[in-house]
Write a structure and sequence with these properties.
With about 190 residues, the protein is α/β, with parallel strands linked by helices. Helices cover about 45% and strands about 20% of the residues. The protein has helices at about 20-30, 55-65, 100-110, 120-130, 135-155, 165-185; strands at about 5-10, 30-35, 40, 55, 70-75, 80-85, 90-95, 115-120, 160. About 30% of the residues are buried. The model has no long low-confidence stretch (mean pLDDT about 90).
Length: about 190
Amino acid sequence: MCAEPLLAVLIGPGGVGKGTLARRLTEEDHGLWLSRSWTTRAKRETETGDEYVFVDRETFERAIDEGRFLEWAQFQGNLYGTPVPTDTGGADVLLEIEVQGAQQVRRYYDHVVIFLIVPPSMEHLESRLRGRGDSDDHVQRRLQSTAHEIRIGHELATHIIVNDDVERASGEILSILEELRRDRRSLA
């Protein structure tokens, strides 16, 4: 088996269900370790607080200066970043990040597999954004950035997954990951 863990990344527009898929994937596949991203944005009322490490801008910027992020980006006025994985217990690493972050990761890691998660329709995406309690202004900003995120995502993605059903979409991702692991074992 390859000594280096597989690095899998979920990208896609806000509200597409990346977080839900990431939780499902790590529940179903104990060989995956989910990296918890940091953000300077405020916690939503609908969030429990374990979706991100919520920090102030000064703390985040200090971590940037200390080189503690695998990737980081500013998105709609807030900072988001993925800490450098330290102890994954030998598991493969799963990141849930923005397309800007995926561009950074792709530059440094040739072996990364990137899953672009897309909604079944723009109407479905808008409904999800509204359903999680986002303000009208935030929903509109997110919808305006969606086309750009999906376009860049298509350039980066190894695989494109339509999130029309969480169970089906997570099953598709898990099947791809298992195939990649089999391929890596056969090369070892």
